[in-house]
Amino acid sequence: MKIAMVGSGYVGLVSGACFADFGHDVVCIDKDQDKIDRLHDGVMPIYEPGLDALVANNVKAGRLSFTTSLAEGIKDAAAIFIAVGTPSRRGDGHADLSFVYAVAKEVGESLANDAVIVTKSTVPVGTGDEVERILKDSDMTHRVSVVSNPEFLREGAAIGDFKRPDRIVIGAEDDFGRDVMAEVYRPLFLNQSPILFTSRRTSELIKYAANAFLATKITFINEMADLCEKVGANVQDVSRGIGMDNRIGPKFLNAGPGYGGSCFPKDTLALLKTAEDYDSPTRVVEAVVKTNDRRKRAMGRKVLEAMGGADAARGKKAALLGLTFKPNTDDMRDSPAIAVAQTLTDAGVEVTAYDPEGMELAKPLMPQVTMASGPYAAIEDADATVIVTEWDAFRALDLDRLKKLANAPVLVDLRNIYEPDDMRAAGFNYVSVGRV
Q: 2, 246, 291, 382: least buried by Cβ within 10 Å?
């Protein structure tokens, strides 16, 4: 089957490469000529473990290609996926659907055969209805079905998530759409991956509900971490204790500096806007968004406190280890590190930083931060070292070397990757999250 993937960013490129690996003929389409040129040269526009090899293998096999021409890319395609960005719209937090609708209009003007149009982008409830209207207004004569097929990929583990999914959600309104999508995902169906067929609007809401629920779990355990510090409890044991309950589960219960990334921040805001539009308030999600925003700056204040307070910290130096919102990605969108760095620099602290993959994208977002060539270069002469992102490279730091390089043996571990007793025995003033 021929598949067209409109949008060659994170979702589109990973999905397209995986579909090609299943044996489909896939064309990835993007208006960014530079991005397409780099893909032709084997240069990935994002960092995702294993993606470069997956793309190279399928290009070599002739199953994956790239173009800037939508009309050329969708020709003879049985399924056309829309995988363009839906960032938060300035002013109201609603998802910006201009790219989705522009693609739908161009598809309607260029389509030369029957096809299923699939919204892979994360879109609010009712978007599929508008896409269908746009296609009908184009006066085309071909049969089309508009389907919702949200993605559930974790950055850093996206290929595995795509090939071994928890579930595949398909929102279709007719047999044509369901039949084509069943064929698209037939390789996974044979592996007994669960496929859930729903209405289109239900499918659109599932994506937002899932991300809002996960964001709620993160925010809940972060609040429990604050309480643990007050009462003298250990949040990691609390997480284990409640996570062993099958009704709750252990995932997304790691206390830290708050959630970030490309999904949770914008999707929770978009869900709030949808709920407002339909006069159905989501008070829990409202609280999650506000609490998470406050937490990021609070983590900066936690560092200042470890440095002796805001007044004592002025003129001193802090080293941030990890800038991306999570490890194994170069994604800086809404990363807690941005707020932490801003809080420190606002207090007059000099900040240096190192991240294995995210520094190029971090530079324009954090112009006040000096980027270092490695973790120990960042730590040199620092009055506090702060672990913001739990990259593997930071899990076994040479503590003796750290103490010799730093001005003070102060380590603020916002990801709880070290043991408090071990760090204190090593002579550190060690501060973690939800542990005393």
A: 246
Give 173's DSSP letter.
Answer: S
**Catalytic amino acids?**
263
List the domain boundaries for the chain: 2-198, 233-436
Measured CA to CA in angstroms, residue 95 lies from 5, 89, 269 at distances of: 21, 6, 8
Task: Assess whether the region 2-198 and the region 233-436 belong to the same CATH fold.
Answer: yes
- Those residues whose C-beta lies under 8 Å from the C-beta of residue 31, and which sit 6 or more positions away, are 68
pLDDT in tens, 377-427: 999 999 999 999 999 999 999 999 999 999 999 999 999 999 999 999 999
CB contact burial 383-421 (16+ within 10 A = b; e otherwise) = bbbbbbbbbeebeebebeebbebbebbbbbbbbbebebe
Second CATH level (architecture) for the domain 233-436: 3-Layer(aba) Sandwich (3.40)
Q: Are 28 and 12 in contact (CB under 8 A)?
A: yes
Integer CA distances (angstroms), 174 to 133, 150, 151, 184, in order = 16, 18, 21, 16
**Are 259 and 337 spatial neighbours (Cβ–Cβ below 8 Å)?**
no
Tell me: the pLDDT tens digits for 106-163?
999 999 999 999 999 999 999 999 999 999 998 788 999 999 999 999 999 999 999 9
Kindly report the backbone phi and psi dihedral angles of residue 310, in degrees, each rounded to the nearest multiple of 5, phi listed first.
-60, -40
- Topology of domain 2-198, CATH: Rossmann fold (3.40.50)
